[in-house]
Amino acid sequence: MITVMRKHHRWLMIVIAILAIPFIFYFNKTDLSAQRATDLGRIYDRAVTHVEFQRNARMLNLSQILGLSLPQELTMGARTEAQAYEDFTWNRLVLRHEAKVLGIQPTRDEIATFVRTLRPFRGDAGFDPNKYNEFTQTTLPALGFNESQLEEIVGDQLLLTRVKDLLATGIQIAESETKEYYEQTYGKLHVAVLRFREEDLQKDVKITDEDVAKYYEAHKAQLKSEEKRRVEFVAFALSEAEKKLAGKERVDALQKVANRANDFVQAMLEKGAKFAEVANKFSTPVAATNEFTAAAPDPQFASNPQLTQYAFQLTGQEPVSDAIQGPDGFYVLHLIGGTPSKPLTLEEAKPKIVEALKSERVRQMVAIKAADAARVMREALAAGTPLDKAMAQGGWTLERIPPFSIVETAPPKPEADKPPKVDPPDLPMIKNAMRELNPGEVTDFVPTDKGGLVAVLERRDPADPGAYAQAKITFEANVLQRKRAIVLYEWLNDRRRAANLQSATIQS
Fold first, then answer.
1. pLDDT at position 7
2. Is residue 507 pLDDT above 90, yes or no?
3. What residue ranges define each of the domains in the chain, with the CATH number in brackets?
4. Which residues, 6+ apart, have CB-to-CB distance to 347 below 8 Å?
5. Is this model's pTM higher than 0.85 or not?
6. Distance CA 32, CA 39 (A)
7. Under 8 Å CB-to-CB from 171, ≥6 apart: which residues?
8. C-beta neighbour count of 381 within 10 angstroms
9. What are the percentages of helix, strand and coil residues in the chain, rounded to 5?
10. pLDDT tens for residues 225-238?
11. Alpha carbons within 13 A on the beta-carbon side of 342
12. Within 13 A of 250's CA, how many CA atoms are on the CB side?
């Protein structure tokens, strides 16, 4: 029997393998369609892994570097950076899928033509091959890409443009809408303002010890002294001659400096390494700071604020930073001391508490007085009472500012014998509050840097009809752009639902 089995062992193994396959599937209860913990989610009945997501995240970064509108349009509505990266991934997959269904596919010639228009590749005479070559040799490899991914993301931009053109079919802007906008924007507004200044009310605010104690108990966990740090550091900087370099030559010079800085960091990882001794081996002087806080950095870090941020990330277990890039070189920081943050006592916290309570109560008083004045204004206008008379009865005086337009057609030229025109205080906030008001209407309370105000639109003079034609073109272009963006946003959401998107983090 053994001899027979040896003689036919190859055929026997094949038969066993064939019989084993059905049993594998029968007894294996794993749901092969189930989403793995390492997946971002599912779309079009397939899993999207985090590897694919990370590639799309790098594609988003590339599109931003190229100055494309793709990242803004595919992440519209995202509230966080993480959500923006995820939305870009899903919406890009939807865009490519739907474009294929619609039969939209840019040609290689169209992609090449568009690439030549991109800002990073433009010189004084137009497309600059040297800038393009530098980009493909430095920026793309740093992202893990080559020219294929450059063409891919540009192709997506062209897909998006054509899809938007299709979706925009039928979008119209009524003539009445344009005329209303023109009058609101370019008509001369005659406005009366009533201002409320915080400094006028501060004397009326009284803060008691009981108020301070109550605030202290409610905010004790947040009332702490500022942490202080003291660091020493070395700088690996470009020489004065190297600072004047540009393009690939500057990149090469920075790379050499970066290599030295990284070698320094690596040397500090050796057991028993001391910062001063390693700096001496690298012939690099060591500088040190005094104690500083995050809000009041050391003067030596004034030109490079990120050094302060990195200084407060250092710990006793990891006291040495990585190489930190600055404008003209790299820095390595070493934590040498500091004063930790500690809870403040009631007496220590009292000045801050009094200031916070005063500021809060003054703002409340300003808002209450302004709301009361706005009510009086509306009642006077409704009753036909002269506005100045009604305001005087309340002890208020209206300020009539020079007539203005929401958008000035042409700024007035300064006259040689007269000082330049100075805008009234808070004019941008007043303009924003007046944008959609009709004559005889009063704003709500408008907060300002020094308090707040309410204003009434007394009259709007008609806009210059001669400038309407040009303004109409600009307005309709802006409105069309906004409406196209809204239509695209709704279309992407609809197509995501149709694709049965199942996100592991943010549900669509």
1. 44
2. no
3. 39-169+485-503 (no CATH), 188-201+357-411+422-461 (3.10.50), 228-339 (3.10.50.40)
4. none
5. no
6. 13
7. 480, 483, 484, 487
8. 17
9. 55, 15, 30
10. 999 999 999 999 99
11. 7
12. 11
